[in-house]
């Protein structure tokens, strides 16, 4: 008797075997994209004949799109495509964009002809040339929007095994490896890619990122059969939209008269910690009010139409997001300061960058000092200063997140003051040396004077950026972890747009027929120091705005619970007390009735 052949078990998917492919995809994308940004203003000014204000604005718009697209990518991945397909399509878009950018350097007809030095005239870019350039930037931004929000979570999907007793340790090792590779990628981009562009030209300098992006996309897709691919689910953004729509629909409903009755009037999600919605932003509570229990709720306890009835949890998630927005907005000014990459690059290009007689630091590599400062401080703070302070005081010591955010804003203001002073000295030296009409000449002043402002920016990001991210994670419900991770990127996107508006306003208000703009293409004729002083004043005003928003917000998370959870906890206690009081009243009535019957 022939036995039926047993089917071979399906090979296990995920695991450590997928890590090299995922991390390589993210690392190559970071090297390629971050390596293009530092020197881009020089490419636009020299090859496309842009003025410094126009070129800076284009870079700000590109950076804003790159920082905003991850939000859209996260929504598409969660709601429709899933993480794998979103990353794959993002990799293809990034590769296409970098290839187009490389073609602008390879094909002479793709950019304007060189300037006529004898007549001192430069031909502007034609419409097709601008379309090609902007298409390259747009595809790179779209690609970043597909890769960056999904890569970390997609890697966690591969190694997250809840049944494994060492699961937490495996995840921690993966996160450490991921962030270490991200740091090394940015470091390589700001040194190796920038150095290549300076010494080998744009053809090689843009070609290497395109090749790296090709390997990024190829390696990621190659391991497709081994991945764990989670299906798309409903996005939090959809839930936010539903709450707003339903609250507007139910705007004429009356709130329940008693909180005990409200327990039955609000739609609860099974397993949710929320019992009643909080009183803050109370008008949103109407989104979870049940009008007709028989028609609004299915037998499974779900809303029959999520666009007509939301859960208490959905309402509280939107409230948490709205509540942090004022404090989130205080970080935009720091992001504006940090995003000032074009002007420091022009400063560094006009200063002596030699370390030895034969080696000089590329002008675009000075941003490395910010990355190194940030990394060293985070490690020193977390592994050195806090344990030492805790040991001295005999109890755990930790700086509050709002205190760290405020310290970062103060340091950022100091960075702009230092930038203004250094630029004032540099410009004064250039004028003394008779270089007013020669912006490409090197001033007899070391570019190492720029290092303090870069280091201060690193400290500012270490305090405010890290503090803000921790603030969001502690104040938001666990279900909003993805939103918490993307809030800083959204701030950077808004900051890039505002920075562009500031540059345009300064250029328009300070230029005229008899005077040069503060942000003139000729760095020696312009007044970049005044521009930095303007940012310093705005940063100082922002500190007072932060203090006001911090006071309005109230206390942050304490004892492992955020304010929302504390309020919900007090409501739970109130519910218990009401029920206890009701039961006690019933028992007292029964006792009184029993005593009356005994007397009779």
UniProtKB/TrEMBL annotation:
Q: What highest taxon heads this organism's lineage?
A: Eukaryota
The alphabetized UniProt keywords are: Membrane, Transmembrane, Transmembrane helix
* GO cellular component entries: membrane
**Gene Ontology molecular functions:** transmembrane transporter activity
Protein topology in the membrane: Multi-pass membrane protein
InterPro entries the record matches = MFS_trans_sf, POT_fam
| UniProt subcellular location | Membrane
- Key word Transferase present in the record? no
| Regions crossing the membrane | 59-77, 84-110, 130-156, 177-195, 207-228, 361-381, 401-422, 483-506, 531-553
Residue ranges annotated as coiled coil are none
What is one Pfam family matched by this protein? PTR2
The similarity comment for this entry is:
Belongs to the major facilitator superfamily. Proton-dependent oligopeptide transporter (POT/PTR) (TC 2.A.17) family.
In Swiss-Prot or TrEMBL terms, this protein is called: Protein NRT1/ PTR FAMILY 1.2-like isoform X1
Q: Source species, please?
A: Rhodamnia argentea
The beginning of the lineage is:
Eukaryota, Viridiplantae, Streptophyta, Embryophyta, Tracheophyta
């Amino acid at each position: 008797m022939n036995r039926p052949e047993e089917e071979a078990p399906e090979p296990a998917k995920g695991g450590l075997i997928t890590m090299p492919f995922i991390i390589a995809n993210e690392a190559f994308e970071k090297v390629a994209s971050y390596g293009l940004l530092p020197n881009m203003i020089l490419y636009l000014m020299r090859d496309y004949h842009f003025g410094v204000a126009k070129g800076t604005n284009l870079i700000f718009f590109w950076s804003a799109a790159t920082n905003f697209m991850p939000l859209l990518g996260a929504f598409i991945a969660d709601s429709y495509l899933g993480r794998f397909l979103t990353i794959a399509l993002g990799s293809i878009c990034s590769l296409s964009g970098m290839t187009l950018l490389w073609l602008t350097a390879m094909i002479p007809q793709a950019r304007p002809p060189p300037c006529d030095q004898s007549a001192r005239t430069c031909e502007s870019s034609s419409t097709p040339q601008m379309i090609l350039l902007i298409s390259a930037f747009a595809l790179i931004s779209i690609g970043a929007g597909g890769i960056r929000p999904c890569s970390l979570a997609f890697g966690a999907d591969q190694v997250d095994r809840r049944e494994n007793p060492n699961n937490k340790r495996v995840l921690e090792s993966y996160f450490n490896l991921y962030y270490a590779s991200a740091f090394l990628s940015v470091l390589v981009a700001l040194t190796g890619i920038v150095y290549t562009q300076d010494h080998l030209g744009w053809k090689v300098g843009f070609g290497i990122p395109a090749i790296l992006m090709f390997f990024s996309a190829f390696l990621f897709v190659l391991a497709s059969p081994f991945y764990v691919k989670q299906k798309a689910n409903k996005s939090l953004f959809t839930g936010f939209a539903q709450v707003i729509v339903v609250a507007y629909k139910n705007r004429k409903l009356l709130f329940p008269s008693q909180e005990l009755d409200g327990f039955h009037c609000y739609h609860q999600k099974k397993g949710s910690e929320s019992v009643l919605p909080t009183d803050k932003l109370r008008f949103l509570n109407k989104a979870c009010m049940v009008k007709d229990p028989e028609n609004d709720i299915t037998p499974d306890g779900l809303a029959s139409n999520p666009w007509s009835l939301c859960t208490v949890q959905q309402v509280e998630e939107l409230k948490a997001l709205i509540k942090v927005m004022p404090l989130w907005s205080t970080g935009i000014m720091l992001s504006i300061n940090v995003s000032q990459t074009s002007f420091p690059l022009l400063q560094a290009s006009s200063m002596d960058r030699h370390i030895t007689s034969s080696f000089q630091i590329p002008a675009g590599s000075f941003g490395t000092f910010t990355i190194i400062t940030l990394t060293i401080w985070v490690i020193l703070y977390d592994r050195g200063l806090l344990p030492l302070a805790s040991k001295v005081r005999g109890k755990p010591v930790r700086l509050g997140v709002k205190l760290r955010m405020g310290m970062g804003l103060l340091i950022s203001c100091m960075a702009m003051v230092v930038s203004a002073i250094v630029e004032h000295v540099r410009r004064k030296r250039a004028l003394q040396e008779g270089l007013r009409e020669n912006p490409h000449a090197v001033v007899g002043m070391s570019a190492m004077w720029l290092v303090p402002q870069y280091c201060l920016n690193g400290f500012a990001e270490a305090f405010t950026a890290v503090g803000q991210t921790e603030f969001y994670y502690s104040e938001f419900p666990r279900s909003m972890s993805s939103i918490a991770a993307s809030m800083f990127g959204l701030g950077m996107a808004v900051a890039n747009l505002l920075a562009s508006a500031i540059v345009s306003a300064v250029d328009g208000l300070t230029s005229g027929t008899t005077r040069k703009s503060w942000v003139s293409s000729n760095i020696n004729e312009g007044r970049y120091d005044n521009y930095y002083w303007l940012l310093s004043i705005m940063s100082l005003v922002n500190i007072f705005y932060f203090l006001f928003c911090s006071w309005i917000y109230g206390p942050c998370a304490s004892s492992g619970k955020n304010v929302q959870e504390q309020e919900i906890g007090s409501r739970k206690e109130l519910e218990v007390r009401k029920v206890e009081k009701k039961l006690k009243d019933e028992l007292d009535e029964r006792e009184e009735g029993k005593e009356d019957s005994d007397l009779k």
